[in-house]
Design goal:
Oligomer: heterodimer
Helix content of chain A: over 70%
Distance between the termini of chain A: 37 Å
Number of helices of chain A: 7
Strand content of chain B: 15-25%
Largest interface: A-B, 23 and 22 residues
Shape of chain A: elongated
Distance between the termini of chain B: 175 Å
Helix content of chain B: 10-25%
Number of strands of chain A: 0
Shape of chain B: rod-shaped
Chain lengths: 171, 577
C-alpha cells in the first residue's frame, strides 16, 4: 500500500514537470500579443517618427534569432524607454503600454532561454545596436529607437510564425 | 575703415537676398497612399507656383547600407502633385521601409525638402480585394473573393504570402435598395450565404483585414446577384417526373384491369341475341305461312272455359302463351269460348272448358295474369255486347307479365255491334273506345283477346268451324287437334278469350296480301271477326272487315272441325299503338 502511494506520487510529480516544461514551451510561442503592441505603436508612430531628424541613420540592425530578440527586449527596457522624455500624455500612455508588453515578453523569454542555444552572432548584433545608439544624442537616439519599434515588432512576428511552425511539426 | 563696413553690409545684403531668391516655398505636406503594390507619393503644391515649377522626389531605403537619397526622375513633372513610386519600392514588404522627401524647383530656385511624417513601410499599405464573384449553388449564395494580383509584384510576393496569417474578411449584404447588414467575418477567400427570404437583387461587399496588423482596410466594390423564384430546382424537377411516372403507371394499370374484366365478362354465344335487321322483316313478309295470323273468334261458337282460368296461375305466366296449359281450362267457367264444328264438339268443348275460366274472366278477364292462358269473357256481356276495354274491377291488368292478351270485361254494350259480333268472335282492339283506360288496356291487350258471342249464335259458329276445318292451315290443324288445352306456339303467341263455350276459336287463313300488317308486331293470330272491329289502328281489322266476313250464326267458325272445339285456340294480339 505504501509502495503504491509512493509510486503514484512520483508519477504525479513527473507529470507536473512535463506539463511545466510544455507550458514553458507554449509560453515562448503564445505569450505575445502582437496586435496590441502594433496598435499601440501605430498611435505613437506619427508623433515619434516626425521628430526623427536623422533620416539616414539606423539603430536596429537585423537580428532574427531568438537570442537577438531577447537582447533587444533588454535594450528597449533598460535604455530606450528610460531615456525618452515624453510630454504628451496620450503618447506617454501608449509608450508605457509598449514598455509593459516588452517586460512581459522579457520574462517569458527568460524561461525559454534554457531551451535555446545562444550564438555569438546574436551577441555581436546586440553590440552594434548599442554602438549606434551611443553615436547619437540620447534624446534623438531614444526617439529614433522608439521610431524603429515597427521593425522590432516585425522581427518578433517573424520569429513567432517560425517557432509556431516548428512546434507544430514537433508535436 | 569706412569701405570695409560698406563691403560687409553689401555682402550681408546679398546673402539675405540670395537666400530669399533661391527660397521657394516648400510643399506643406508629403504623404504616401499605397495599396498592394501600388505606392503613390502625394504632396501639396506650393502657393503661387509658376508654370516652370516642378518638384523633386527622393527616396531613402531605411536600414540598408549604404544609405543615400535616390532621386526619382519620373516624378519631376511640371505641375505634378503626385508620383507613382511602386517600381522604386518593390521590396517594401521585405524591408524596414523607405524615407521620402520632396522639394519644389523653379528654375534656379528650389525649396526646402519636405518629409512625410512617418516612414513609409508595409504598415502604410491599405488592404483591399480585387473583386467578389457571386453565384447560386445548392440553395446558397457562394462568394469567391478575388485577391489583388498586380503585374509589377515580384514573383512569390503574393497577398497570401506577405500576409500569411490572420487574414479575415468582413461581409455585408443588402437587398436593393436597402442598407447593408453585416453577415460576420470569414477567414477564407470563399464563403456561403443562405438565400435571403424573398426574391430580388442582393448586393455583397467585402472588407479584408489582418488580425495581427493595423493596416487600413477599405470595402470592395459591391457585387450584386438577382434571385428569382426557384421553380426549376433539382427537387422540384425530380418530384415532377416522379409524379408523371406514377400517373402513367396508374393509367396503365387501369387499362390492363379493364381489359382483363372485359375478357372475362363475355357472354355465352347462346345468350347473344342478334339485333333484328331489315332483312328479317323482309323474310317474314316473304314467308307469310310462318306469320301469326289473327282470327276473330265467335264467342257463341266456342264453348266457355271454366272461370277458374281467371284466377289460375296461367295468367301469371311469362311465357308466350302456349306453354302454360293447365287443366283448369277445362272447367265449365265460360271465360274462354271455343268454337265447335258440331254440336257434339261444341258440347264437348263446352264441357271441356273448365269452370275456372268462366270465373276468371268474369271478374275481369286476364287481369293479374302473368301466364299465357286463356281468359274468357264474362257471359253477362251477351247478347252482342261489344266488349269494351277497361280496367278490371279488383284487378290490375298492368300487373301481368305474360305475352298473352288480357281481356278486360266491361258492362257496356253496343247493340250495333251485336250482329257483327254474334257469329264470330270479335277482335276488339284497344283504342279510342276507352282512351282513359288505354294504359291498362294496352297492357291487357298484350296477351288476350276478349270476345263476346251471343249464345244463340254459337251453335252456328260451331258448324261453320267444323266444315272449314279442312281448309285450315296445317299448322292450325295441329293446334286444334291438340288436346293439351292450349294451342301450339307455332300458331299464336298469345291468347284469345271467348265468353261462351259454343264459340270456336279458329284461325282463318287469309289470302296473302289482304292483311295490312303492323309495322313490327307480327305475332297475331288472325281471327275472322265480323262487325266493327273498333279502332282504326288495327289495320288488319280493316282488312278483316273488307273480307266481308259477315258474322252469321256459325260463320266460318261453324265450319271448324269439332276437334278444334276441344282445343282452346290461343291467339295473341299485339297492339299497335
Amino acid at each position: 500500500m505504501k509502495a503504491l502511494c509512493v509510486s503514484l506520487c512520483l508519477l504525479g510529480a513527473g507529470l507536473f514537470l512535463c506539463s511545466a516544461h510544455t507550458r514553458g514551451l507554449r509560453r515562448c510561442l503564445i505569450s505575445m500579443n502582437l496586435h496590441h503592441m502594433e496598435d499601440s505603436f501605430r498611435g505613437i508612430k506619427a508623433a515619434i517618427q516626425a521628430k526623427d531628424t536623422f533620416q539616414n541613420v539606423t539603430i536596429l540592425s537585423p537580428s532574427e534569432t531568438l537570442h537577438g530578440i531577447k537582447n533587444l527586449l533588454a535594450f528597449y527596457v533598460d535604455r530606450v524607454f528610460k531615456d525618452h522624455q515624453e510630454l504628451n500624455p496620450q503618447i506617454m500612455r501608449k509608450i508605457s503600454s509598449l514598455a509593459n508588453s516588452f517586460l512581459y515578453m522579457q520574462k517569458t523569454l527568460q524561461q525559454c532561454q534554457k531551451l535555446c542555444h545562444c550564438r555569438q552572432e546574436a551577441t555581436n548584433a546586440t553590440r552594434i545596436i548599442h554602438d549606434n545608439y551611443d553615436q547619437l544624442e540620447v534624446r534623438s537616439a531614444a526617439i529614433k529607437s522608439l521610431g524603429e519599434l515597427d521593425v522590432f515588432l516585425a522581427w518578433i512576428d517573424k520569429h513567432h510564425r517560425g517557432t509556431s511552425a516548428a512546434s507544430r511539426q514537433g508535436t | 575703415m569706412l569701405p570695409r563696413q560698406i563691403v560687409n553690409l553689401a555682402a550681408l545684403l546679398s546673402l539675405l537676398l540670395g537666400s530669399g531668391a533661391h527660397e521657394l516655398p516648400r510643399p506643406s505636406s508629403v504623404w504616401f497612399e499605397a495599396e498592394f503594390f501600388h505606392h503613390v507619393l502625394y504632396w501639396t503644391p506650393i502657393p503661387n507656383p509658376s508654370e516652370s515649377t516642378y518638384y523633386e522626389v527622393e527616396l531613402l531605403r531605411y536600414g540598408v547600407e549604404p544609405t543615400y537619397w535616390k532621386p526619382i526622375r519620373s516624378c519631376s513633372q511640371m505641375l505634378a502633385m503626385s508620383c507613382d513610386v511602386t517600381m522604386e519600392t518593390l521590396d517594401l514588404y521585405r524591408s524596414n521601409g523607405y524615407r521620402a522627401r520632396v522639394r519644389a524647383v523653379d528654375g534656379s530656385q528650389h525649396s526646402k525638402w519636405t518629409f512625410p511624417e512617418t516612414r513609409f513601410s508595409m504598415d502604410e499599405v491599405t488592404l483591399t480585394v480585387a473583386s467578389v464573384k457571386l453565384e447560386m449553388r445548392n440553395g446558397n449564395i457562394v462568394g469567391a473573393i478575388q485577391l489583388p494580383r498586380p503585374e509589377v509584384a515580384p514573383k512569390g510576393d503574393t497577398y497570401e504570402n506577405i500576409f500569411h496569417n490572420f487574414r479575415e474578411y468582413q461581409i455585408e449584404v443588402r437587398k436593393v435598395p436597402g442598407h447593408y447588414e453585416s453577415h460576420g467575418k470569414v477567414k477564407n477567400e470563399s464563403f456561403k450565404l443562405p438565400i435571403p427570404r424573398g426574391v430580388g437583387e442582393f448586393c455583397v461587399r467585402v472588407k479584408p483585414s489582418v488580425g495581427s496588423r493595423v493596416n487600413k482596410e477599405v470595402w470592395s466594390k459591391e457585387e450584386c446577384i438577382l434571385l428569382t423564384s426557384q421553380y426549376f430546382t433539382v427537387t422540384s424537377i425530380s418530384i415532377f417526373f416522379t409524379f408523371i411516372l406514377l400517373l402513367y403507371g396508374a393509367l396503365t394499370f387501369c387499362l390492363a384491369f379493364q381489359l382483363y374484366v372485359r375478357r372475362r365478362g363475355k357472354l355465352p354465344a347462346v345468350l347473344v341475341f342478334k339485333k333484328p335487321s331489315p332483312f328479317n322483316l323482309i323474310s317474314q313478309f316473304s314467308h307469310p305461312e310462318t306469320q301469326d295470323t289473327i282470327h276473330t273468334l265467335d264467342e257463341e261458337a266456342f264453348p266457355k272455359v271454366t272461370p277458374e282460368l281467371r284466377d289460375s296461375d296461367m295468367h301469371g305466366s311469362t311465357d308466350s302463351g302456349f306453354g302454360s296449359a293447365k287443366p283448369s281450362l277445362q272447367t265449365d267457367e265460360p271465360q274462354f269460348l271455343l268454337p265447335a264444328s258440331d254440336p257434339q264438339a261444341g258440347g264437348t268443348l263446352e264441357k271441356g272448358l273448365p269452370q275456372e275460366l268462366e270465373n276468371n274472366c268474369g271478374s275481369g278477364g286476364g287481369s293479374n295474369s302473368a301466364d299465357s292462358g286463356i281468359c274468357l269473357p264474362d257471359p253477362r256481356l251477351c247478347p252482342g255486347a261489344e266488349p269494351s276495354w277497361g280496367p278490371q274491377v279488383g284487378s290490375d291488368s298492368r300487373d301481368r307479365e305474360d305475352s298473352g292478351i288480357s281481356l278486360v270485361q266491361n258492362s257496356r254494350g253496343q247493340p250495333e255491334d251485336a250482329q257483327g259480333g254474334s257469329a264470330s268472335g270479335h277482335v276488339s282492339p284497344l283504342g279510342p273506345e276507352e282512351p282513359a283506360e288505354e294504359d291498362s288496356v294496352a297492357g291487357a291487350f298484350q296477351g288476350y283477346l276478349k270476345q263476346t258471342q251471343c249464345p244463340e249464335e254459337k251453335a252456328a259458329v260451331l258448324e261453320e268451324v267444323s266444315s272449314s276445318a279442312e281448309d285450315l292451315d296445317p299448322q292450325f290443324r295441329t293446334c286444334l287437334d291438340t288436346e293439351a288445352g292450349w294451342p301450339l306456339p307455332a300458331l299464336a303467341k298469345g291468347y284469345v278469350q271467348q265468353d261462351s263455350p259454343e264459340m270456336i276459336l279458329a284461325p282463318l287463313q287469309t289470302p296473302e296480301g289482304q292483311w295490312d300488317q303492323p309495322n313490327e308486331d307480327w305475332s297475331l293470330l288472325g281471327l275472322t271477326s265480323c262487325g266493327d272491329l273498333g279502332t282504326p289502328d288495327w289495320s288488319f281489322a280493316h282488312d278483316l272487315a273488307n273480307l266481308d266476313c259477315v258474322p252469321a250464326p256459325g260463320g266460318l267458325l261453324g265450319s271448324f272441325d269439332s276437334d278444334l272445339v276441344t282445343l282452346p285456340l290461343i291467339t295473341s294480339l299485339q297492339s299497335t299503338e
